Structure prediction request, 265 residues.
Amino acid sequence: MGIAADISADWRAALAALAWQVEAGADEACGDVPVNRYELAVEATKVAAPAREQAVPDAAHATPAGDPVAVARAAAAAATTLDDLREAMAAFDLCELKRGARNTVFSDGNPAARVLVLGEAPGREEDLEGRPFVGRAGQLLDQMFAAIGLSRTSPDAETALYITNVMPWRPPGNRDPDAAEIAMMRPFVERHISLTDPEVIVVMGNTPLEALTGTRGILRARGTWTEALGKPMLPMTHPAYLLRNPAAKREAWADLLSLQARLRG
Prediction:
């Protein structure tokens, strides 16, 4: 009985440890030994450097192929439809987050909607399904906007939502995207908004606030209308924040009523 109990305890402990790792983002086994990708990047640079020097002898006339923001800007500018933009983002290989993601999460909802909701980045459920806001935070988002008559499933532009994120790939462990990652995705975000041409933009969380305004501090900015890319913009706290801080739902409701009044006006 003692041996059986020990085996059972070890099995439960291993299962709990596995569940913790999956929740933290380590949901795929890649090898028996850890890989230092920084060392791989250095080695790749050493190998690739001579080839680049031979191919582009005159650096003054070289294209900025190594500048992620410049590459993103060129790819986004070339997209004339949402399908083009989706393909351009899926083909963009200069963001390290893409390497660990299962899917490129592009958008959901009605592209003709008056309201575009811009979130931060996919979580685990979004990465698995390939759509933004489908986990617990997404369910709360749907409930919030349904309370003022808006839905991502509505075919009517008057009552529809269009939802996308700044980052199309899940950061490991659901960490916040850093400034460099946000900067390289900004051209895609700007083009996305240009192609859908919403009447109003709602940014949810610090990442989209930084992407469109260059500033952070969503708790100070929320509820105050401003302008971004020539359009009215309303900052709101992210639904994930509201799940952790239920008392903040009162402020979020006030923001939703402000949005409703704006749309009716």
